[in-house]
Specification:
By secondary structure, this protein is α+β, with helices and mostly antiparallel strands. It folds into two domains: 173 residues, no CATH class; 39 residues, no CATH class. It is 29% helix and 29% strand. It is built from six helices and nine strands. The strands form two sheets. Strands 1, 2, 3, 4, 5, 6 and 7 form a seven-stranded mixed beta sheet that branches. Strand 1, helix 2 and strand 2 form a beta-alpha-beta unit. The longest helix has 18 residues.
């Protein structure tokens, strides 16, 4: 799933306010060596932290239905994870970097929710939106200064982007076959003889409705007029 979130971000940054500019979009760690090898204006989105959003964890199971709307499997609700990206701009002039950061901010701010139709692969198949939060209050345990120190580089302007995305919880569990007949009750006396001439049966709603429809159809054919 993480690589699919990466592709979503690259697409957003490439097709937003920077569309047609030819700006490179990179995901590598912005170390000193990487900065020395860079030879073109670049927006870098470096994934520096992954942790679960435990406040969104759910219990229980979700039904999985087939084309007949019959439950065939049950699965646990997905787990939600916060993917934190350090978004930076790299050019030869600070003013140009600030322009790139402004374009990235203008692109990401309106996209607080990415609908499933815009998500690739298994991420889109979950049918859930992905949440984006950019330049908000940092809630992770590590500060940006510590991150830059770990990267071996000098502190520079950046956007803190947090993507909250669902991850499927495996495995799926097979569901039992659908109920087609209800429970039947037979009442007998102490000597074993039937207390009632017929058994009393409970029929599931779907089965009873289908049987009533068939009986109504037969009754309609039986009352038709002939000439």
């Amino acid at each position: 799933m993480i690589h699919e979130v990466d592709e979503v971000l690259k697409t957003l940054l490439r097709d937003g306010a920077l569309a047609g500019s030819g700006i490179d979009i990179a995901l590598e760690a912005p170390t000193r060596d990487w900065a020395a090898r860079r030879n073109a204006p670049t927006i870098n989105a470096y994934l520096y932290d992954i942790r679960e959003d435990v406040a969104r964890r759910q219990r229980g199971h979700l039904p999985v239905v087939d084309e007949r709307d019959v439950v065939v499997k049950r699965r646990r609700p997905p787990r939600w994870f916060r993917l934190s990206y350090l978004v930076t701009a790299w050019t030869k002039q600070p003013q140009d970097e600030h322009r790139l950061l402004s374009a990235a901010l203008a692109t990401l701010m309106p996209r607080e929710l990415i609908p499933p139709a815009e998500l690739p692969g298994a991420l889109g198949a979950l049918g859930m939106s992905v949440q984006l939060s950019v330049a908000g209050t940092q809630t992770e345990t590590r500060s940006l200064a510590e991150i830059w120190s770990a990267l071996g580089g000098e502190l520079k302007p950046s956007l803190d982007l947090v993507v909250t995305a669902p991850f499927p919880a495996h495995p799926d569990y097979d569901a039992g076959p659908p109920v087609t007949e209800g429970a039947a009750i037979r009442v007998r006396r102490l000597d074993g003889t039937p207390a009632e001439p017929e058994e009393r049966a409970h029929r599931p709603h779907q089965v009873a409705a289908a049987r009533a429809a068939r009986e109504a159809a037969r009754g309609g054919r039986g009352t038709g007029s002939t000439t």
